[in-house]
Amino acid sequence: MSKFSLAKDKIKILLLEGVHQSAVQTLNNAGYTNIEYLKTSLAEEELIEKIKDAHFVGLRSRTFLTRKVLQSAEKLIGIGCFCIGTNQVDLQAAKELGIPVFNAPFSNTRSVAELVIGEILLLLRRIPEKSAQAHQGVWNKSANGSVEARGKTLGIIGYGHIGTQLGILAETIGMNVIFYDIEDKLPLGNAKQVADLNEMLAQADAVSLHVPETKSTQDMFGAEQFAAMKKGAMFINASRGTVVDIEALAQALTGESPQVGGAAIDVFPVEPKSNAEEFVSPLRGIGNVILSPHIGGSTLEAQANIGIEVAGKLAKYSDNGSTLSAVNFPEVSLPSHEGRSRLLHVHQNKPGILTSINQAFADKGINISAQYLQTTADIGYVVLEVDSDDSQAALDQLKQIDGTIRARVLL
Ligand SMILES: NC(=O)c1ccc[n+]([C@@H]2O[C@H](COP(=O)([O-])OP(=O)(O)OC[C@H]3O[C@@H](n4cnc5c(N)ncnc54)[C@H](O)[C@@H]3O)[C@@H](O)[C@H]2O)c1
Ligand SMILES: O=C(O)CC[C@@H](O)C(=O)O
């Protein structure tokens, strides 16, 4: 449960899924050299084996940190998702175990928005279909079904970081933008929020999904929503595969008179674990459909920035305890702590814990020179500073506080 600070070269960092080398560089620059770097994700049993002695783990969207995996990771003190989505981690389990999870909330936003704009233009011109025909030697020179984006309406579902960027880019090419979000959002440019999803679907010439994977978005788009779309409108999903009923999409794209005119899909309910595995989908082979292997955020710029951002957050948490921008944890932003030892204490959020800590320290004559506290409904994170000579005694006291989840000292 409790940890004493380790020398940096003893802190083991497991990096999975080929995160950008900028992550390794950032960690090395911060003094962390004990890094195991793997190009792929790992299946549960292998992951349990590998993560056993790791203090930090870095991953992208294909590694699933379930409660079972996290419970087996006895030394783990921090998790870095080198992406935006954090649905692949059991955030609640990580929190209960006192492990903060960090991500890169902005670094690939622009890359996704640019890809979607490109896809809208290609779909409206029926280029996927025409390109496939040309590859087969068919010369189909015709304007049938090809339209400009100018003056058409884009419906965005989920008007967050990506949705808003996309809206701005779409307006610059002359599109009207409407959006649907469960929260009231400030519309950028001339965008308009629509309160009812079906009302939005009835107006949009292209619909693009930018929601996170949550209980409320699971299967939020199925046969009923495709039927509510304007006949022949385009459909784009670069959010998460679980948001869309993929069989219903396949049906809406096929038949004598398809309801949906074309689609660009980057994310799938089941995705191959590595580039070596076959990609299986009911959408394969359907005309005017762009299929991409979950690369919406995969540009060199985005990946390099993500590497620096997330590795920097892990190093900062390891060095000074800062949890600023953690997605599952009380956020504490901390100055440097030269000349003193800093103790990190994660506890169940119940009355009396701070009093117990202060009393225990007072009883042992340990002076607290700084104290920072943040809580969520179920856990509390308190950071204390003491004279370096008192650090071991202070850690011993913290370990005994009822409700302690984790205690660690930074020298
Ligand atoms: N394809 C890729 O490579 C790629 C890259 C980056 C992000 N993503 C995915 O895109 C998602 C969105 O990213 P973001 O940075 O814009 O997130 P964000 O959190 O900034 O925005 C999400 C928006 O969705 C809204 N929302 C949540 N539930 C909703 C619901 N049920 N109905 C309507 N709106 C709802 C939220 O209020 C918010 O405005 C990420 O969670 C991630 O899963 C995919
Ligand atoms: O890099 C990945 O695997 C995931 C990218 C994207 O879906 C994200 O959530 O940022």
From TrEMBL:
Entry protein name: D-3-phosphoglycerate dehydrogenase
Phylogenetic placement of the source organism: Bacteria, Pseudomonadati, Pseudomonadota, Gammaproteobacteria, Alteromonadales
Function of the protein: Catalyzes the reversible oxidation of 3-phospho-D-glycerate to 3-phosphonooxypyruvate, the first step of the phosphorylated L-serine biosynthesis pathway. Also catalyzes the reversible oxidation of 2-hydroxyglutarate to 2-oxoglutarate.
Keywords: NAD, Oxidoreductase
Domain ACT: 342-411
Similarity annotation: Belongs to the D-isomer specific 2-hydroxyacid dehydrogenase family.
CDD domains linked to this entry: ACT_3PGDH (cd04901), PGDH_3 (cd12176)
Enzyme Commission number(s) of this protein: 1.1.1.399, 1.1.1.95
Pfam family of the protein (one): 2-Hacid_dh
Pathway the protein takes part in: Amino-acid biosynthesis; L-serine biosynthesis; L-serine from 3-phospho-D-glycerate: step 1/3
Catalytic activity: (R)-2-hydroxyglutarate + NAD(+) = 2-oxoglutarate + NADH + H(+); (2R)-3-phosphoglycerate + NAD(+) = 3-phosphooxypyruvate + NADH + H(+)
Gene3D superfamilies in UniProt: 3.30.70.260, NAD(P)-binding Rossmann-like Domain
Molecular function GO terms recorded: phosphoglycerate dehydrogenase activity
Record gene name: serA
The species this protein was found in: Catenovulum adriaticum
